[in-house]
Design brief:
The chain contains four helices and ten strands, in the order H-H-E-E-H-H-E-E-E-E-E-E-E-E. The protein is α+β, with helices and mostly antiparallel strands. The chain has one domain. Strands 1, 2, 3, 4, 5, 6, 7, 8, 9 and 10 form a ten-stranded mixed sheet that branches. The radius of gyration is 34 Å and the shape is globular.
């Protein structure tokens, strides 16, 4: 009788042990499945964030072509023109599309000035997800003027300032004299424009606006 009772107890213990092992296995499988789903969801979120950043940084194709014609530079950046530099000319259509607001000129104005004024691609010293900075040159009457401009990804002008210059005086008591304006941008996006008489300080903000310090 005792043997039968002992066998019954052992059998009951084995059954309980199997049920527990089965339950633990199911729980482990459920945990693994949940982790896998979380991993997939996290991957989807990362992909979504990457796509969102790409959308922010995507350039207008026409503006991207214009930007690609400037010499790529890096910070710190400096220009101190001597009047002897040679650069590729900016055609009328790009003058109208991208320089008209900075120059406050119309297409007709650019066409009329073409006989004695040239515009040049100088450099592209800075690019971010929100804005792009270029320096272009205007040559007229023996003098060269450099301008710093920032644009958004659509190619719309954000800010512009006089950046550097080489001036050859052609008339008056200073005729024949040369004057230089030196422009620089440091790694903190701070701008210095230094002439013979004064130094002006600016800073490029995160949104591309250039503010006077």
């Amino acid at each position: 009788m005792k043997k039968i009772l002992l066998i019954s107890i052992i059998g009951l213990m084995l059954v309980c042990s199997c049920k527990c092992n089965s339950s633990n296995t199911e729980n482990q499988n459920n945990d693994a499945s949940q982790q896998s789903e979380n991993g997939i969801q996290s991957g989807e979120n990362n992909t979504s964030n990457d796509n969102e950043q790409q959308k922010v940084a995507k350039l207008n194709p026409q503006f991207e072509t214009f930007l690609g014609k400037f010499d790529k530079r890096s910070l710190p950046y400096n220009e101190n023109p001597s009047g002897k530099e040679k650069f590729e000319k900016i055609p009328i259509n790009e003058q109208v599309n991208y320089l008209s607001k900075a120059e406050k000129l119309s297409k007709k104005d650019f066409e009329e000035m073409a006989e004695y004024t040239d515009f040049y691609y100088i450099s592209n010293p800075l690019n971010t997800n929100k804005y792009h900075a270029i320096v272009y040159g205007r040559f007229e009457m023996g003098s060269t003027y450099y301008f710093l401009c920032t644009y958004n990804n659509e190619g719309k002008l954000i800010s512009n300032i006089d950046f550097a210059a080489y001036e050859l005086m052609g008339a008056g008591p200073q005729a024949g004299q040369e004057f230089n304006t030196e422009g620089s941008i440091d790694k903190n996006m701070e701008i210095s424009v230094k002439s013979n008489e004064v130094t002006r300080k600016y800073k490029i903000q995160e949104d591309g606006k250039i503010v006077r310090l």
